[in-house]
Amino acid sequence: MPTSQTIAIVLAAGMGTRMRSDTPKVMHRLAGLPLVDHVLAGLSAAGITKATVVLGPEMADHTARFAPHKTVIQKERLGTGHAVKVALDAFDPGESDVLVVYADTPLLTTETINDLLAQKRNAAIAVLGFTPEDPGAYGRLITNGDQVESIVEAADASPDELSVDLCNSGVLVANGRKLSAWVKALKNDNTKGEYYLTHVVALARADDDRCVYTEGEVDELVGINNREDLAVAEGIAQDRYRSAAMAAGVTLTDPASVFLCHDTTFGTDVEVGPFTVFGPGVTVRNHVTIKGFCHFENATVGDRAVVGPYARLRPGAALDDEAQVGNFVEIKNAHIEQGAKVNHLSYVGDARVGKGANIGAGTITANYDGYNKTHTDIGAGASIGSNTVLVAPVKVGDGAITGAGTIVRKDVPANTIAVSEAAQKNREGTADAYRAQQKAVKESKSKDS
Ligand code: UD1
Ligand code: MG
Q1: What is the DSSP string of 15-40?
Q2: Cα–Cα distance for residue pair 321/334, rounded to 1 Å
Q3: What is the pLDDT of residues 2-16, one digit of tens each?
Q4: Ligand that lies nearest to the alpha carbon of residue 192, given by its number in the listed order
Q5: Which domains does the chain possess?
Q6: Closest C-alpha residue for ligand 1 atom 11
């Protein structure tokens, strides 16, 4: 467990050059949440409430989003050691433990953080190592018994050092007062010309201070430096969220094809079919059936509702209990009240569909005139015929009916049937002659070509 004194420094100022992006690396998202926010959430789950986030100058306008955490700007990016120095210049940690985490390592779990803090108790530094399948560009931990003697960056390592499998995750905890002194003493005489945080281990050993290490799971220590790493981390995060959902009583028919967001909320006995994507802000209550191939974003789904297959719930879609939204239906900023049904090929946007109303196939709420969005209100128990176009703003009263193909341009009072007056003409006995004529046209065209 962290002592009440544990203070975290989150390094988030790197250029993230390898991402090849206009977005700062730490703002790239994993399961819908920026990498740096995953790290902060992990710290707070471990009971660490004081953190200083080191940001690059391009994020100077974004400091408010980190409140109540402190932020410091690392104007010149001179390396991870320099970043920690910039943070420690802003506050005196005294004898508190300082936990350094990298914002590009977002999958770190509470258990591992606590494990590392426990290791630190009888040492000046505890480093979190791991053994990835491919040590690649990670720094290597050079150990001696239970101690780390140094951390060597891959670019500076000898062939012998490169053959070491135990790598540096970037996470370490150190006595704050000593760490402040060591980061001030760092030199940049290495391949990259940077002030490496990792070099504090050698400085500690030179002072005869104890440096211990513990090993964490590979899956939680993946560092994100490029888009491929990001995809690997996304896969790991998705597996975690899927497992948590299933453990909480959600059936995922094909977990691998269901994509969740960090804040997706499920009740119990929800069934989710394959190929379904949950964007941010989705709440699904109890006993809901989501048939496959659906897409959700900022939407809520009430108890016993049935959705899909092939339904899209866009921001502001709110389904009350027992509502039904079927195939090829798009709902946006619309309240579908209890037991109402929108089952086929419809667009319902900026609308209310009253309790128990039925929306026929192909119904469209024409909510946008090119300038403004306007509202459609459909009363309880109304029955909207197939292919009705509701030209908003418009109101259909309780229990009203619209005929198939009606273009509703003015309000329909309650208990009223609305039909569009385009009278149908039947030309009796003309169908055969029409077919013969069309056949002749087709044949004359094929002779010409
Ligand atoms: C670093 C470690 C390496 C470790 C690896 C684990 C050093 C020198 N190397 O390498 O041993 O195996 O992480 O993923 O620490 N940052 C700043 N300011 C800077 C430079 C970096 O805030 O001036 C931040 C970055 O935003 C990032 C973190 O520090 O979150 C790590 O920087 P990065 O450049 O990704 O280091 P790695 O090369 O991955
Ligand atoms: Mg990195």
Answers
A1: --GGG--SS-GGGSEETTEEHHHHHH
A2: 14
A3: 555 899 999 999 889
A4: 1
A5: 7-221 (3.90.550.10), 227-418 (2.160.10.10)
A6: 139
Beta-carbon contacts of residue 99 (< 8 Å; ≥ 6 apart): 2, 6, 7, 8, 9, 43, 48, 113, 116, 117, 171, 172, 173
Q: How far is the CA of 173 from the centre of ligand 1 (A)?
A: 15
Q: Output the CA 211–ligand 1 centroid distance in Å.
A: 20
Mean pLDDT for the chain?
A: 96
- Compute the chain's Rg from CA coordinates: 31
Choice from 38, 75, 80 to test ligand 1 binding pocket (greatest atom count within 8 A of CB): 80
Protein residues whose CB sits closer than 6 Å to any atom of ligand 1: 11-14, 26, 54, 74, 77-80, 82-83, 102-105, 138-139, 151, 153, 167-170, 196-198, 223, 225
Four-CA torsion 12, 17, 22, 23, nearest 10 degrees: -30
In sequence order, the β-bridge partners of residue 129 are 168, 215
The pLDDT tens digits of the residues spanning 163-188 come to 999 999 999 999 999 999 999 999 99
* Minimum CA distance residue for ligand 1 atom 21: 14
What is the model's pTM? Answer: 0.91
